[in-house]
Amino acid sequence: MTRNYSAPACARAVALPASLIVGLLVAPPDCGIASAAFVDLTTAGSSGSIVAAEFDTNIVQATGTGGFDTFVQQSPQGNGTISRAYNTTVNNVLDNKSADNFNYSIELGDAPVVNRAGVPSLKFSLDLNESIGGGAEFISLDEVQIFVGGTPNSNVDTFTLGILDHDGTLVYQLDAGGDDWVAMNANLNSGSGAGDVDMYLPLSLFSGFAASDVVTLYSQFGLQGVDPAGFTGDFGASGGFEEWGLAGVPEPSTARLVLSVLALAVFRRRAG
């Protein structure tokens, strides 16, 4: 379920020759004024959008620790119910976990490129590990910030006007148009062996960047707490950790080729 509000334009669309990318129909994302105050993903098969990002619960591939390429794990400290973290091998940065094989820098070319309703998009998958029962299976995704370039495996833990002080380029923010959030249900799939939510970002958001550029994904969970407006349940973080990963990853050359062609198209358009 999607609730709409006015939001600023959010992406630059770049048209690529269809002959260069088989199976991907390039079209600009609809990101001018229609977006969402929040997206309800608490029921199976639900979906919605916030600014340029599409979210859905249509997971067809098992994920979880060991099942897909996890690049960041996070959970609240102590008895807290809110977690904030981003992918880095540096320990004790905000609420990230300490295992380097599940918390590390990734490159733009590592993310799978998929055809999302005719729009080439990067896919990031989210696995939830919440307590089940009594309404505790719910959790809110309250912020996502994605940076390209800058320092890999950073240790920055400060913010300016709500934006992580990372030295990369901010290409997407969930809260860019307001205090937006995604309502999620960890009980739609079982345990940490199955994913819960996919997030799709139009490839055009990343135009002009190289496949080798670093990607840093910061996210915050649990801010909505107990019984937020329109819902009954505990949307704070409880149970185990939440983890972002790359599921359904294509051959490395595929993603990097698409990004290389996109970068070339941008260069030619600017040169012309």
Automatic annotation (TrEMBL):
Record keywords, A-Z: Signal
Cleavable signal peptide: 1-20
Protein name per the record: PEP-CTERM protein-sorting domain-containing protein
Organism of this sequence: Posidoniimonas polymericola
Top-level taxonomy: Bacteria, Pseudomonadati, Planctomycetota, Planctomycetia, Pirellulales
